[in-house]
Amino acid sequence: MAKKLDVLFAHNEEKAKAFLGRIEGKKPLFICTIATTETGKIPGLSAAGANPDFTDFTPPADAELLLLGKCKSIQGVPITPDGIPTPGLITMSALHLADIPVLVVNGGVKVKPQIPYVDLGGNSGRDIRTGDSVDNVEEVVERAKVLGQQLAKAADYLVIGESIPGGTTTALGVLSALGVEAEGKVSSTLPLNPHSLKSEVVRAGLKAAGEKFGSLKNNPIKAISCVGDPMMPALAGLVIGAVRQSPVLLAGGTQMTAVLAVISALDPIALCNVAVGTTRWVTKDKSSDITGIVRQFCDVPVLAADLDFEPSTYPGLRIYETGLVKEGVGAGGASIAAMAKSGVTKDQLLKEIERNYASLMSLK
Amino acid sequence: MAKKLDVLFAHNEEKAKAFLGRIEGKKPLFICTIATTETGKIPGLSAAGANPDFTDFTPPADAELLLLGKCKSIQGVPITPDGIPTPGLITMSALHLADIPVLVVNGGVKVKPQIPYVDLGGNSGRDIRTGDSVDNVEEVVERAKVLGQQLAKAADYLVIGESIPGGTTTALGVLSALGVEAEGKVSSTLPLNPHSLKSEVVRAGLKAAGEKFGSLKNNPIKAISCVGDPMMPALAGLVIGAVRQSPVLLAGGTQMTAVLAVISALDPIALCNVAVGTTRWVTKDKSSDITGIVRQFCDVPVLAADLDFEPSTYPGLRIYETGLVKEGVGAGGASIAAMAKSGVTKDQLLKEIERNYASLMSLK
User: Fold this and answer.
1) Tell me, what DSSP letter sits at residue A113?
2) Mutating which of A70, A119, A123, A235 best tests the B interface, going by the most B Cβ atoms within 10 A?
3) Is any Cβ of chain A less than 8 angstroms from the Cβ of B172?
4) Which of A106, A270, B162, B277 is deepest in the core (most CB within 10 A)?
5) Model-level ipTM above the cut of 0.85
6) What are phi and psi of A331, to 5 degrees?
7) Residue A99: CATH number of its domain
């Protein structure tokens, strides 16, 4: 390694370093998987949109931001109810600095993005309290495998992120169904992590499905169908299809642990060539515990981009340091990929983020 | 060049050789663009399906064949009314031998393929005799440009083929609207090229649109909207988006000349990094004249895979030598790409095609 990259090793340091070594200087393809659910609209659960109904527009708008540098489905960019901009800003800045190509994959959205996207035959998800949240899980997994196989031949490695509001609650749902202790451990975009609401929603979902903690340990497809979201079959399939050909960096926070648990149940060997790439804000978060989830069922390494917005001149960015938003749209993994590909530093990245922030929020 | 490849230079030999030199040993991405139209169902016009109504299933089935090695939307593989198998067999064999990745792009189909595909917001086309054949042309071109930009970053170069029944008639339509003399020059899957029927259909389309030969010379978007097909905006956009980053091999016969004419009218500089890659069966065809079309408006080189099915043990393949089918699903361009990437010879390719033919037609 010619110089030290701004990447932290949050879990399984040895494997994390080896993974970083494997991707350094290589050419990745970034995949943004989008999905929406009615779960994401439960009041108080997600901040990925100015209000609950707006969450249908957040994933397509994030995807547009990455491909076009601006949104088409909404004015401006997605924001939290407090006006904090989408972490997609970090992702677009990282990908641009390192000239990393992007492909958008539709796991299942209500509002279609106004850009090219790969369709996998998935639909937007229902409220998990119905116990019947996702259609067509097995078929989407199969199609995503086929896509992952092809894309892994085209790029040196894949970086796969997500934009799905309410995704940590569905993550808790699937982790619980699979018997992984994750209550109080999943992350949140909100300043106060609504753990008890998430647990209540998941309990209602499992009950409605006639399931309980761990009862779907050997049936991850059904776990997603009952209490998961449409991002999960897309991501799990992509990883399983790709890893025999190339490494995969799962770009996200605690949501990715549910994807890991699904893969671990479907095809555990596939985890040998996978790492999670997130942000320092997730790994240092006191209201969640990503490594506490991962280590229960696998030794996949967790890397974190050492992002630091404290020096920013913009209060809207500095506020990330208070623990809001933290991650999303593959922000951490895209940053790691930009660092690994082109030696981008966290300072260069912050400058580019500030430039894009100012221009998109029309601050100059 | 270490050894002579089985590639012929059919037009603009100097540029053709230079293009081949640029792609030799490089890693391509093959894109199969699918589309359907009601034009393709006019009796006597196309043989890309066992009967006219079947043409809706040919493009999705071809795409499935490339990604899965078998079709899902139909039993067996697409055939002509005479039972000749789809040229997609050639394409899948070439891509497999050289381990070339595939992405399917949906320009606009009636029957969606049961595999992952990129959606560009296009619809299946109407009969061009209405003079109003394709929706949403400008938007599809724009989205395809965005996709082309990204894919050109991911691969060393792009090879872009098509599967659209009736495509030479819509090609004649757009070439005529743009003022290119193509009557009697477009190719056909049929043993007897139905030139007069094609001309009649195109004349009816131009009349219905209130246009005439050459009247849309400066409006290629409208030319496609009136008398074109949904493959064209997808391909033109992909090329324009990609060529500033990487070379593009347009994998097809005379249909590709309409795409070239559209690009020539939209963004002529984009043609500098483009070649047409087809089969020997197209370039030696006496009932069509691909170079006679191309040389009217550009100096894009034409390369041809020197395929020869004469030595085949299978009559269903030997019949290609009588001039049936000739090209489609990017067969010629995929063969050239396999030869350029891995030094695949025409003999090796025929062996692989025979193997796949026997297994898919259940001959052994």
Assistant:
1) P
2) A119
3) no
4) B277
5) yes
6) -55, -50
7) 3.40.50.10210
